[in-house]
Write a structure and sequence with these properties.
RNase H type-1 domain-containing protein, about 230 residues, nucleic acid binding, about 15% strand, RNaseH_sf, signal, RNaseH_domain, elongated
Length: about 230
């Protein structure tokens, strides 16, 4: 018998097999029952996360010039730049966000990391982290001039005039309202290599990476840094 799968269907098939194996192990070793509908949804979610991660990847550059072009770029003198990113941990069953604010010298003015239980859909997670980052900046009196994210789809959706009635659309509309009150703020896309600090913070918040932040209430961790160093 010969089965003909499209590339997308075959990838989903592999994810289904893996999730079924995980469910089998949970039943045998932890006496946990799994709902077939949940297994299917988890397979779809995992494939979405994988594809979103692949969209962010790029070939490792060979020259020093290319590396410099991909690195984080400081904002103009006298301004602040906000970088945000998301990380999802299937092992910890968490979605985490990292937010970092730096000035034109590259000095870290403030940074925060936070997480929530569950694995959010990729675009919704990116939107959630940006929304939380904007609120956090406002609440801490940080006058942001530039914002960078490494998810092109999020920027496209924010610039679109289409109505979206999903939960993701609710996040997009909330971000739009926040940005409308900040008319001088500019929103940009950056490569993953230019967003490393925010991503590392996001990984710390899920427990996938250790760092200088200490856990706080409501599963949030916050750190403020006053010197320019890698996070």
């Amino acid at each position: 018998m010969q089965l003909n799968f499209s590339a997308g269907a075959f990838n989903l098939f592999l994810c289904m097999l893996w999730k079924c194996w995980n469910a089998r192990n949970a039943a045998v070793f932890r006496n946990q029952d799994s709902n077939p509908m949940r297994i299917e949804q988890e397979a779809h979610d995992y494939l979405d996360f994988y594809q979103a991660a692949q969209d962010k990847r790029m070939t490792q550059p060979q020259s020093t010039t290319d590396l410099n072009n991909l690195a984080w770029k400081p904002p103009p003198v006298g301004t602040l730049k906000l970088n945000v990113d998301v990380a999802v941990s299937s092992h910890q069953n968490k979605t985490g966000g990292g937010v970092i604010v730096r000035d034109h010298t590259g000095k870290v003015i403030a940074a925060t990391a936070f997480s929530r239980v569950g694995q959010m859909q990729p675009k919704a997670a990116e939107g959630w982290v940006l929304w939380e980052g904007l609120k956090w900046s406002r609440d801490n009196g940080l006058n942001i001039d530039h914002i960078e994210v490494d998810c092109k789809n999020l920027l496209t959706d924010l610039q679109s005039t289409d109505d979206n009635l999903s939960s993701y659309g609710t996040i997009i509309n909330a971000i739009r309202r926040m940005l409308s009150s900040l008319p001088t703020v500019t929103l940009h896309h950056t490569r993953r290599q230019g967003n490393t600090a925010a991503h590392n913070l996001a990984q710390m918040s899920t427990g996938e990476r250790r760092g200088p932040c200490s856990s706080g209430p409501e599963n949030r961790s916050i750190c403020f840094k006053r010197e320019n160093q890698d996070i």
